[in-house]
Amino acid sequence: MTTALDRIRVGSAPDSWGVWFPDDPRQVPWERFLDEVAEAGYAWIELGPYGYLPTDPARLTDEVDRRGLRVSAGTVFTSLHRGPAVWDATWEQVGRVAELTRAMGARHLVVIPSFWRDDRTAEIVEPPELTGEQWAHLTGGMERLGREVRERYGLDIVVHPHADTHIDTEEHVERFLDATDGDLVDLCLDTGHYAYCGGDSVKLIETYGERIGYLHLKQVDPEILADVVANGVPFGPAVQRGVMCEPPKGVPALEPVLTAAQGLGVDLFAIVEQDMYPCEPDRPLPVARRTRRFLRSCGA
């Protein structure tokens, strides 16, 4: 018998509809995303790239309310390892997203570190390993971000380990967690990205459970991943090869992850993110329906 995962709040995101950018002719229109995410059976969504969904709170509230949806989080990209010089530009972006996130009644801001490899061209733009000074900038900057976002907007930041960023592997994730204050900075554990980078999500939840503030659910195809790793394929092209696959066809198995998360005894969002940019416009809805059905079979 499946255990009821009553602490897990399941949702989806524009990413599951192939949306990576605020505006791109290869992406579905935002109205279609909202229609279809509701039709697929999800109650919660993320804002996605700022500017993809309407940024006027009154209009967006009307659009999500009409479809029976609620917003769980906004997302920002940061490069805080570069030091104090980037703070003002970072805060300008964060402020816009945080304001809309708060206005939509959400409580979380997902923070993604900047890529060391260009996601479109695959050009390596920075060394994949940070210096000690850059680590200090990164951890100190995230703590400052967590403090100021909470003070000004009442939101909690959850930092998202991500392929081709400086917070990716188990070693880097643990180093980041050990060097940051758990009262200011929690983690958005993305099961797909963590597996992509060789990490074990269940082990992370069991070891650093008090730092898990949010979940992104996705899986990787082990065969495609093996080829990606062997040939040093960047994340963007790897997604186009189908490295992130529809559950339950990949790894990690999501049921043990959800069970471990339920065991933390706190309410957690678990937002499906099926990376597939770019994709045919008719592809996301059937995948989303099947994924929602699968998660219900796990008790979520």
From TrEMBL:
The lineage's top-level taxon is Bacteria
Name of a matching Pfam family: AP_endonuc_2
- Which InterPro entries does UniProt cross-reference here? IolE/XylAMocC-like, Xyl_isomerase-like_sf, Xyl_isomerase-like_TIM-brl
Ranges of residues in domain Xylose isomerase-like TIM barrel? 34-297
- This protein is called Xylose isomerase-like TIM barrel domain-containing protein
Provide the species name. Answer: Streptomyces minutiscleroticus
